[in-house]
Structure to design on (812 residues):
């Protein structure tokens, strides 16, 4: 075998081993339940043996296959062992909800929201009932100030800063988040960050600042810079962007501004993402390389090319640390370091091999990176630029010789940036649609201006302002001009294009189309990209048959929201809670779910009554998607009525039919509007029925009196296959007579995990159990959905999407 053949053979062998490793990691990430730690140890040992055997193969493909299987087993075992180790740090269930005295250090920059502070806390000691107890070493705590907009932070809250040692009394719980189809997996994010408990500071014992400078000096420096920005820049919008770019405080950016940045496709520029760190390394490498060439002794000690490469990596590391060392930044630093090591080895590595080795390194350090959109967007962006022969690798570009003539250099740079942006936009559009189901049509134009402005001007000014605060004023002015331009672009018709979630085969076809489009291939081959992309751009949507309906009881926490979909119409019953002044279920849960399902509009928004946990997300729905009409029991003058195109009042006796499905309003009676009843008593009760799909009863927050009135008036006509339980399972509802009249097969409790009201009440659960009614509760089920209410028991999202990091609480 010649040397060239040997090199080629070795290259293929390394590529196969790298892919095998990634396959093993991916297989482990799909485990629903972890095996014992000893099982992963055995798998790892067997994998090492098989890998040692397979590494020595030449032409014996069977032996080579053994090596690949061994590498996959090793990736599987390492990831599984690390998962076992992290899962073992779980907060004991016996400590949930108890007052625990915690002593430790504020380990992150406190995130400020409208309702208070949230921060990471390194626990040094924990006591419950005077006894030492074991809790996870890293937790997140919320320290809230109240609901009112004019509520101010208390003096202790104002003093809280990173790197301080405090003593708190807190109540903790195991990590738990809402789980909905195609929704954000909050529990995965916490698991990847190593946070194994969350909680809130209590007032039972006043918080006490023990030491102002107890550790985490980088976090303390970040705190000082953020506080200085707040003092120097009066414009809150500009100050938020400067804080996000300099110290990674993304909570400083208002929700409306995040919407603007996402809709114009530049959100990656104002968050410390992988692309942002990469661009910083690229810019730093160019500057370091240019300065290095001016020193002959430095050139003799280390070539400028190597200095630029390593300088870029070190600059990226410093920036990532100072901006909070978030998981995306960590992945990027590891990737850049791997690429630099490979390039410093003296061998010419093909670009696919460079990316593959970097992916193996990143997945070894952080297996759960493979489940994050940022990982794939970063790697695919770099791969597309390399494959299309664009010299935009941040390390190699940084080490390229400085061209003679500044005008020529600027011209070449601008042409390269334009081509890079076109390639990245075209190539990443399918992947963006796969992960987020939307893409900014104006993103190319926005990024052409925003990338150089943010990377070359605003970010350096944000960082240098720590030494010369007047630079922040100039940075703030640039931020305002940028936001004005973005607002103009976002106002264009069709600025954002959304698509439903496509089947897996359509997603793969769309990604293949992007690769074809940007590769330097003949246009006859590139033309194949269009038919390949169509299934992703126009995915098929499965709708109920005429006469049938689909139900989704959305997991919104402590609140209610239910989607009822017929063949051609969508009804949304209630809109979930408002979590804080700047966060609600409409914006966080319902709009993303509607977009993922491909719902073009809401034909009827029915708000059962005025309580926050039922109407808190309605404003976001009314402003974020077309709503044909709105039914509610809201009183005259309620602010939501002014946002609705056709507000109507719900009254018992109203009926309508959609696509062969019958809708009947049973509550409240017309006279109730003059009786000044409390809000729960005004709940609109809706029964949905069809011969082919059974029946569904939506009850809002009615209590015993309203239940008794319905039983007296309708009797057996209340019978329904599925009951959305009244008042989240409160002990004031679900009376025995009501359950005997409805006779549901299934009952769905929509309530928050460990909510402060104790829903569902034990005595209520007992009444359902006595009647043999199958019970589903959103804390243990997540979203509950059924394509036909009479067919089977429906599907719990926590069962359908079960992974080992997901919380599995019992119905209590």
């Amino acid at each position: 075998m010649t040397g060239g053949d040997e090199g080629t053979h070795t290259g293929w062998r390394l590529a196969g081993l790298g892919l095998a490793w990634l396959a093993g990691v991916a297989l482990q990430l799909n485990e629903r339940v972890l095996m014992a730690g000893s099982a992963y140890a055995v798998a790892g040992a067997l994998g090492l043996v098989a890998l040692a055997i397979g590494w020595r193969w030449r032409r014996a493909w069977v032996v080579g296959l053994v090596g690949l299987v061994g590498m996959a087993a090793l990736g599987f075992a390492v990831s599984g062992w690390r998962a076992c180790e992290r899962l073992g740090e779980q907060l004991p269930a016996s400590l949930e909800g108890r007052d625990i005295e915690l002593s430790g250090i504020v380990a992150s920059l406190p995130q400020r929201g409208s309702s208070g502070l949230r921060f990471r806390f390194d626990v040094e000691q924990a006591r419950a009932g005077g006894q030492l107890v074991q809790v996870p070493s890293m937790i997140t705590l919320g320290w809230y100030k109240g609901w009112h907009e004019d509520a101010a932070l208390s003096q202790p809250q104002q003093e809280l800063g990173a790197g301080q040692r405090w003593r708190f009394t807190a109540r903790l719980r195991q990590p738990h988040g809402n789980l909905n189809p195609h929704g954000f997996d909050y529990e995965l994010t916490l698991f990847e960050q190593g946070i194994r408990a969350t909680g809130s500071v209590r007032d039972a014992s006043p918080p006490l600042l023990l030491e102002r400078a107890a550790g985490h000096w980088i976090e303390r420096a970040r705190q000082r810079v953020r506080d200085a920005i707040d003092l120097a820049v009066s414009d809150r919008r500009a100050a938020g962007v400067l804080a996000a770019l300099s110290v990674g405080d993304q909570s400083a950016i208002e929700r409306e501004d995040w919407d603007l940045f996402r809709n114009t496709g530049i959100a990656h520029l104002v968050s410390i993402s992988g692309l942002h760190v990469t661009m910083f390394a690229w810019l730093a490498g160019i500057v370091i390389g240019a300065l290095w060439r001016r020193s002959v002794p430095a050139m003799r000690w280390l070539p400028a090319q190597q200095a630029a490469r390593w300088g870029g990596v070190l600059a990226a590391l410093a920036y990532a640390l100072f901006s909070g060392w978030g998981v995306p930044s960590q992945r990027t630093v590891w990737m850049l370091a791997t690429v630099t090591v490979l390039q410093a080895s003296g061998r010419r590595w093909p670009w696919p091999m460079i990316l593959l080795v970097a992916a193996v390194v990143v997945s070894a350090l952080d297996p759960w990176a493979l489940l994050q959109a940022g990982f794939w967007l970063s790697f695919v962006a770099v791969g597309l630029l390399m494959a299309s022969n664009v010299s935009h690798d941040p390390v190699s570009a940084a080490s390229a010789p400085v061209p003679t003539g500044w005008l020529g250099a600027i011209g070449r740079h601008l042409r390269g940036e334009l081509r890079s942006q076109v390639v990245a936009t075209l190539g990443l559009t399918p992947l963006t649609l796969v992960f987020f189901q939307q893409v900014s049509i104006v993103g190319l134009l926005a990024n052409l201006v925003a990338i150089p402005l943010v990377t070359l001007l605003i970010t350096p000014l944000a960082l240098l302002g720590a030494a010369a605060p007047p630079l922040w004023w100039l940075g703030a002015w640039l931020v305002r001009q940028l936001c004005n331009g973005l607002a103009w672009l976002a106002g264009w018709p069709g600025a954002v294009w959304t698509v439903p979630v496509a089947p897996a085969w359509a997603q793969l076809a769309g990604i293949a189309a992007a690769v074809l489009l940007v590769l330097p291939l003949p246009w006859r081959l590139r033309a194949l990209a269009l038919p390949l992309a169509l299934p992703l751009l126009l995915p098929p949507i499965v709708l109920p048959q005429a006469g049938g309906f689909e139900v989704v009881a959305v997991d919104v926490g402590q609140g209610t929201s239910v989607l009822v979909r017929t063949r051609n119409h969508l009804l949304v019953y209630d809109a979930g809670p408002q979590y804080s002044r700047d966060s609600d279920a409409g914006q966080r849960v319902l709009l993303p779910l509607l977009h993922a399902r491909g719902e073009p509009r809401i034909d009827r928004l029915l708000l059962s009554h005025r309580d926050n946990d039922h109407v808190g997300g309605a404003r976001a729905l009314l402003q974020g998607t077309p709503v044909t009409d709105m039914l509610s029991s809201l009183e005259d003058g309620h602010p939501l009525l002014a946002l609705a195109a056709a507000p109507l009042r719900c009254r018992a006796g109203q009926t309508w039919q959609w696509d062969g499905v019958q809708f009947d309003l049973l509550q409240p009676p017309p006279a109730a509007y003059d009786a000044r009843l409390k809000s729960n008593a005004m709940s609109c009760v809706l029964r949905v029925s069809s011969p082919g799909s059974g029946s569904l009863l939506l009850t809002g927050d009615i209590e015993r009196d309203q239940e008794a009135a319905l039983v007296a008036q309708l009797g057996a006509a209340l019978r329904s296959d599925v009951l959305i339980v009244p008042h989240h399972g409160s002990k004031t509802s679900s009376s025995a007579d009501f359950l005997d009249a409805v006779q549901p097969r299934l009952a769905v409790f929509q309530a928050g995990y460990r909510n402060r009201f104790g829903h569902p009440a034990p005595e209520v659960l007992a009444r359902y159990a006595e009647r043999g009614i199958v019970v589903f509760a959103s804390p243990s089920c997540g979203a509950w959905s059924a394509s036909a209410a009479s067919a089977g028991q429906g599907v719990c999202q926590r069962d359908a999407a079960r992974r080992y990091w997901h919380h599995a609480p019992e119905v209590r």
In short: Residues 3-87 form one domain. Residues 360 and 428 are 22 Å apart (CA to CA). The chain has 31 helices and 27 strands. The longest helix spans residues 406-436.
